[in-house]
Amino acid sequence: MKRQDGEGRRDGRTGTADAGRVSSFRAPSAERRATRWQCIWHGLHWHWELERSIISRGRHTTACHAAVEVAKVDSAGTLVDEASGMIPAIQKELRRRGFDLCHPIHISWYNNLIREEGLIDAGTLRTLPETVVGAEEGNNCNALLIGNNKHVWPVFLRWLATQVNQRKTQNESLTDEEALEQVSSPFDTFVEESILQAIRGSFGEGEDAGITSYEMFWSNGTRRKVSVQQSGVAEEGAGTATNTKYHCYKDEEESFLVSMQRVAVTTGEYWLDSDATKLCVHPEFGTWTAFRTVVVFETQATNGTDPPVPTLCPCPVTDDELKVAKTVFDYALANSSAEEGYGTTVNKPWDELCAYLHGSVCSGSTWDKVPDTMKPWIQLRDCFSAGRKEWKYSEPQLLYHYTRDSEILIAELRRAEK
């Protein structure tokens, strides 16, 4: 049977809902400590957070919002839809580029959560900058969480076909494979370019908001700050002049890791399975989503109030599904701790770990070619029935996200030509 609302919640928080607010978060015991495994799983494309933690089960009487429409916050702290404005413009541009998920948030929600979970004191995570955005106009949300579902794949393939054809036009002797090799990190490049273009192209609608800059915190640990001209258009040169790109796996003070799952939890749209899969589950999309970046806006405003924390999403999966998922996860972890797989990264220095997690490629153009150590990790996403029928990734998309096998892209491009 499906869990009742508030029964055995596993998002790491306890407390009661009061007029749409969460009254408290549960601080972890002294036994909670960040581990090297946590850093490893943060680097995977599905952004897992494997922690050796003690998570108590609390009760919530909250409901999950299924809508994915972008909204703004009025002076009373109520989310309201708007027909025009910068945020709806960003949403429209993002959807056109394949990024259907765009959630308005306030950074204080995330900062309070990781603070109460003890992740700041443990040195695992740092707080994001809390800015004031148009408080006098009632627009209290100061950031966006941007991600995608399966709709990003065909848009990506069209972008990739353009990149390959451009290179073949410049050099007619190139084969498809050779032209593809010249596209560095195809999907990651597409994601960054598309989201940056969507935001820059929306600033004509944002002049009244008085936004002076925005900073992007990407899921791979890099960050980028872009200033905005008085005209409301992002400066073309600012992206380079103020761009600071760090990486979460290099042992440097400047590295900045954001727990995308925890940001997602604060939207009220997702439930975090902290015990089994370490995945966020949406009641409609299931596990078939991915979070790409948090965009924090800065304006000239100097005061404002934090909007209420959205009510939390109840567990949308059954007890039986959770048991199966935990079994698959334990098997995957044990299997990966052998001579192959992610378990081999435990003793790697940070630079090698970074290269492995973000640069490694393995065979996987078909399921039969996927390494046995990786198969259970892929199967984890399919343990929950929510979203499976309508939103499950196609096999090429799913396999590419995990293996980065270029043969998948070549096959997809040739299929599109037929």
What report would you give on this structure?
This protein has a five-stranded antiparallel beta sheet, with helices on both faces. It starts with 16 loop residues before the first strand and ends with a helix. Mean pLDDT is 74; it is low at 1-83 and 236-251. The chain is α+β, with helices and mostly antiparallel strands. The chain contains 14 helices and eleven strands. Helix 2 (86-96) packs antiparallel against helix 6 and helix 13 packs antiparallel against helix 14. The chain has helices spanning 36-42, 86-96, 107-116, 152-170, 176-181, 186-200, 238-241, 260-266, 319-336, 350-359, 375-380, 388-391, 395-403, 406-417, and strands at 17-18, 21-22, 72-73, 79-80, 101-105, 143-148, 211-218, 223-227, 271-272, 280-281, 290-299.
Secondary-structure topology with pairs:
Layout: E1 17-18, E2 21-22, H1 36-42, E3 72-73, E4 79-80, H2 86-96, E5 101-105, H3 107-116, E6 143-148, H4 152-170, H5 176-181, H6 186-200, E7 211-218, E8 223-227, H7 238-241, H8 260-266, E9 271-272, E10 280-281, E11 290-299, H9 319-336, H10 350-359, H11 375-380, H12 388-391, H13 395-403, H14 406-417
Antiparallel strand pairs: 1-2, 3-4, 5-6, 6-11, 7-8, 7-11, 9-10
Helix pairs in contact: 2-6, 13-14
